[in-house]
Amino acid sequence: MKRRDFITVAAAESASIPVLAAAQSTAAPQDKARGELPSSLPRSGRSGPMAPATGLILANLRGSGGPRLAVRIEHGLLDVTVAANALGFSIPQSTDELISAGEGQLRQCMATALASHRDEWFVSEDSALFAPCISNPQKIVCVGLNYRRHAREIGMAEPKVPILFNKFNNAITHHRASVPTRGLPGNHFDYEVELVVVMGRRCVDVSEEHALDHVFGYCTGNDFSERSYQLITSQWVAGKSSDGFAPLGPYLVSADLVGDPNQLKLETRVNGELRQSSNTSDFIFNCQQIISYCSRLFPLEPGDIIFTGTPEGVILGMPKERQVWLKPGDKVATTIEKLGTLEINVA
Questions:
Q1: 26, pLDDT greater than 80
Q2: What is the DSSP letter of 121?
């Protein structure tokens, strides 16, 4: 599609927002296995820290002045930070700011920008320079051994309570990033597709029944790991938190567009070869149970993220004679239904 056609289509969408919004809520994804996404649309009503945003597929874009907030529309991305600066709207500058401070005039900015035919406000997905869809969580909580078939493939019993560990913020990286492995101790590098929960409200001692009420949205994650140092002691962080070991994105999808997080297809491909293919229905502990359990141990704050575990198909679970660890030059794509595909390059 030519750039002018792209803008024309985007602008036309703003004239039919109510119809599109209604259709979007009931239509099935076109291709669940490939993580097909709907589009974000302006909607009426207010949203803030106590009223999580709805109907949004968000991204952060890289820029010289820091991350810029963007929303996914039908044929690409609207750079709402650039549009807001030109139009005089007050909006959050990133997903982190949106979660902590609310939408501001985001909806008005989106509607005006879509009708304005300004090429420089729109970016194609192919050319977009994505930043991590969450860049500064207070906590990165990870759950280990949380899929039944994964526990069986590595010969371990199902845990009685969630196994928790953490990563550090230096591990966070973005869609299409190069994850550095040269010079690191160990060379047993592995992938882990994971559903990542992004908290939207402060959460302390919450019940399972109300746990999802505190969720802002979800994104695709890859719990990139170096297995020899992960397993050298009973504490896993040594193999989990090097630079770039927590890719996120490309999109943060609001919870209403995802529906039940415990019924999502997910997969990993390495150099195009399918390695993982499963469903979050194989969780040992579902999202409600994980959030409730964590909230009894420590507060979950807006913007905190939870990696919920990986299914079967990791290199670690293969027979030793078949284990070929990731190496520089490999391309890893992790896909989750309704959330999209996260790509990284091993460097």
A1: no
A2: G
pLDDT digits (tens, 9 = 90+) for 272-325: 999 999 999 999 999 999 999 999 999 999 999 999 999 999 999 999 999 999
Q: Which run of H or of E encompasses 108?
A: helix 106-114
Q: ω into residue 137 within 30 of 0, thus cis?
A: no
* Both structure tokens of 256: 């209403």
Q: What is the pLDDT of residue 231?
A: 83
Domain ranges of the chain: 57-123, 140-346
Token duo for residue 286: 């579902």
**Sign (positive/negative) of CA torsion 166, 167, 173, 175?**
negative
pTM score, two decimals? 0.87
Q: Give the span between the Cα atoms of 305 and 249, in whole angstroms.
A: 12
Residue 133 exposed, middle or buried by CB count within 10 Å (0-12, 13-18, 19+):
buried
Which class is domain 140-346? alpha beta
User: What's the CA gap between 102 and 47, in Å, rounded?
Assistant: 6
